[in-house]
Amino acid sequence: MSHRFLWFLPLAAALALTGCSSAGQTQPEPEQSQTQSQDGNLDAGQVETVVRTLLGEDPSLTVVGNETMQQQLQMAKGMGSTSGITPEKCAKQMEKYTVTDLTASVSATGSVTAESLGKVVQVFSITDEATRKKISDALTLDDISGCEKVTVEQSGEKLSADRQILLLKVDADQSLTMSTQMDVGGGQKMSSVVVQALKGNNFVIVTFQTGLAEPATMSAEAVELINKAFAEIETLN
After folding, report:
1. Distance from C-alpha of 209 to C-alpha of 1, rounded to nearest angstrom
2. What's the pTM value of the predicted model, to 2 decimals?
3. 87 preceded by cis ω (within 30°)?
4. pLDDT digit string (tens) for 213-230?
5. What sign results for the dihedral spanned by CA atoms 143, 144, 148, 154?
6. How far apart are the first and last CA of the chain?
7. Which residues, in sequence order, are CB contacts of 48 under 8 Å at separation 6+?
8. Number of C-alpha atoms within 13 angstroms, CB side, residue 23?
9. pLDDT for residue 205
10. Alpha-carbon distance 197 to 123, whole Å?
11. H-type helices in the chain, by residue range?
């Protein structure tokens, strides 16, 4: 994912990055990484089923199963989420509304890449009430006034971005949708929409990224996809 700029999106940051950076790895087959479901939660095979159902038969599809996700989530726990972000108050806001530890989950990530649009779908069946509460608290972010424009420094390069919370209806208990447009230099802008939603013990993140379309044009499709995810989860429970 270009410049890995999802680092400074609340909540999804580390996980969206994890999903993108997993492409090309050899993944275990679903039957090799089964985790038994309990209390209505999804097992490892079921979270992969949701991801594959949403992303279809795209030839570029890469799916990261629960076994590998757990390894990556463990690494993400120790990563800082606010380094290099200015203004400082925006870095503090991100820190407050970012959940980097989702190890208490059964999870899968799928990504597809295309010249016009990249998609990442992440499904987490949360197994710990404390983790669910942290996600719920983070999803209460409803105002980024004063932090619509931020700068991120990565590898000595400063990238500027414009962000906006989109008030969209999602079929979930809680949701947060944010669009970002980043100037990556050379007159090129990268746009993304991230929809994050929690329903019961299931947390889903859908990320769209493109260098062509405006974020607003991607939001409806992203919400449609996340609603489809919860509908699929209902059939599996």
Report:
1. 9
2. 0.84
3. yes
4. 666 678 889 999 999 999
5. negative
6. 33
7. 30, 63, 65, 66, 108
8. 17
9. 93
10. 10
11. 13-21, 44-55, 66-77, 88-96, 129-138, 215-236
